[in-house]
């Protein structure tokens, strides 16, 4: 007799009956937190103080996830979204919560993570660094998607946990100059012969210029280049092509790097594709706060790891420190060196190094006075293994992931440091993303 395979039901993914949940708080990812049958239940979209009807969609040993179906008792802090695409686009996820409560919940989530996961309690909780609620984002990457049936190209952000692109014609968290470009740029791209082979689009608005960086996977025809040049002239933007080999073609012939400014007068250049902080106002205040918290004394030796194009390094040198900046991307190291020269800064050196690798042979590794860390989301765990060789009096940790900050805090505490100051950095209003600054000092 023939036998047919029959998949066993996945108990972890089984749907449950609808039930009510009382939401007590938000987790660090912005989901509502409740409890049922001895398990923590996460309900994205629900807010503290609300009673909601939801359905369990995933069950683990110690927690479960639920899909929000209905809000039975709404929070007084629930507000209407400020975006027509909210709930479809995967970018923002806290627009339904009033801004003051967004920040209060982010700060509480940060403190809780440091306490429970990092066993670190700050002696001083600083006021959050905040900026505008809308129109704050000076850089964004939009996805493209070609629709074969309609033969049109969509431009937008990906839906949550999906490869599907939600087509948009504006975005209220983008700088207005960038938001206003989306609709005409979509029209322009749809006139190109090569529209089926276009990659992502990066929009940038900095002091030097507004830019459109277009990722291409094949050379464009002269006609397509002419259309893009005309668009750049009409909309007063620099239009740049970036191919799959990293080659940059400035269609307006301007080969100078775009730059942004800090409050100390520094102008920091960067190449298309380089990382820069997307919230200009918050970044300026973040750099100022870092200098204040480190309390730089003349001739102190400061090490700036994950330095990028010199966002903190240049300011540290201007404050009188002897600074060494280390970055893992060679091209950004070269740009950082150019930025030091352009800003007339001496007493600063830059090196390229893989900061997750063995650092024992690095010429810059040695005793320092102070250490600044600004790592990516993975954190600085590997770099902190070399702390005994550095012996800094103070460590300033700028974090874009509170989970890795909490984990790395354990290493600092084990090596005799204490968490002196902790502050929320609200770099991304309307989203759950938590950034923070933490100052550790040696006992």
UniProtKB/TrEMBL annotation:
CDD domains: AdoMet_MTases. Gene3D superfamilies: 2.40.50.1070, Nucleic acid-binding proteins, Vaccinia Virus protein VP39. Keywords: 4Fe-4S, Iron, Iron-sulfur, Metal-binding, Methyltransferase, rRNA processing, S-adenosyl-L-methionine, Transferase. Residues 12-70 form the TRAM domain. The active site is at residue 400. [4Fe-4S] cluster binds at residues 83, 89, 92, 171. It catalyses: uridine(1939) in 23S rRNA + S-adenosyl-L-methionine = 5-methyluridine(1939) in 23S rRNA + S-adenosyl-L-homocysteine + H(+). It comes from the Bacteria. S-adenosyl-L-methionine binds at residues 277, 306, 311, 327, 354, 374. Its EC number is 2.1.1.190. It is an enzyme of class 2 (transferase). The keyword Methyltransferase applies. Catalyzes the formation of 5-methyl-uridine at position 1939 (m5U1939) in 23S rRNA. Belongs to the class I-like SAM-binding methyltransferase superfamily. RNA M5U methyltransferase family. RlmD subfamily. This is 23S rRNA (uracil(1939)-C(5))-methyltransferase RlmD. The gene is rlmD.
């Amino acid at each position: 007799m023939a036998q047919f395979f029959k998949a066993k039901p996945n108990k972890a993914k089984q749907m449950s009956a609808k039930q009510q949940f009382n939401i007590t708080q938000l987790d660090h990812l912005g989901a509502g937190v409740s409890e049922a049958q001895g398990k923590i239940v996460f309900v994205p979209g629900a807010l503290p103080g609300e009673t909601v009807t939801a359905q369990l969609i995933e069950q683990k040993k110690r927690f479960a996830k639920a899909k929000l179906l209905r809000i039975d008792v709404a929070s007084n802090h629930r507000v209407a979204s400020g975006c027509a695409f909210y709930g479809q686009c995967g970018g923002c996820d806290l627009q339904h919560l009033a801004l003051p409560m967004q920040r209060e919940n982010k700060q509480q989530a940060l403190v809780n993570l440091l306490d429970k996961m990092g066993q670190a309690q700050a002696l001083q909780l600083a006021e959050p660094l905040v900026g505008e609620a809308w129109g704050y984002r000076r850089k964004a990457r939009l996805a493209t998607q070609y629709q074969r049936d309609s033969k049109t190209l969509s431009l937008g952000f990906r839906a949550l946990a999906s490869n599907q692109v939600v087509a948009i014609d504006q975005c209220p968290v983008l700088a207005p100059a960038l938001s206003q470009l989306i609709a005409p740029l979509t029209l322009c791209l749809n006139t190109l012969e090569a529209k089926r082979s276009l990659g992502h689009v990066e929009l940038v608005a900095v002091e030097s210029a507004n830019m459109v960086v277009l990722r291409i996977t094949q050379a464009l025809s002269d006609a397509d280049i002419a259309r893009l040049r005309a668009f750049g002239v009409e909309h007063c933007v620099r239009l740049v092509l970036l191919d799959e080999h990293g080659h940059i073609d400035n269609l307006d012939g301007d080969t100078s790097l775009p730059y942004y400014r800090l409050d100390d007068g520094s102008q920091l250049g960067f190449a298309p594709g380089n990382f820069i902080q997307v919230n200009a106002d918050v970044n300026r205040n973040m750099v100022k706060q870092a200098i204040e918290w480190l309390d730089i004394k003349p001739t102190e030796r400061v090490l700036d790891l994950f330095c990028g194009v010199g966002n903190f390094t240049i300011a540290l040198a201007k404050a009188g420190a002897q600074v060494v900046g280390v970055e893992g991307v060679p091209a950004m190291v070269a740009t950082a060196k150019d930025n030091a020269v352009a800003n007339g800064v001496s007493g600063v050196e830059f090196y390229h190094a893989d900061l997750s690798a063995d650092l024992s042979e690095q010429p810059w590794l040695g005793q320092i006075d102070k250490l600044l860390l600004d790592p990516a989301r993975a954190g600085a765990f590997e770099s902190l293994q070399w702390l005994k060789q550095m012996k800094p009096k103070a460590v300033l940790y700028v974090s874009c992931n509170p989970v890795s900050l909490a984990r790395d805090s354990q290493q600092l505490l084990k090596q005799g440091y204490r968490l002196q100051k902790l502050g929320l950095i609200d770099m991304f209003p309307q989203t759950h993303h938590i950034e923070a600054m933490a100052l550790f000092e040696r006992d």
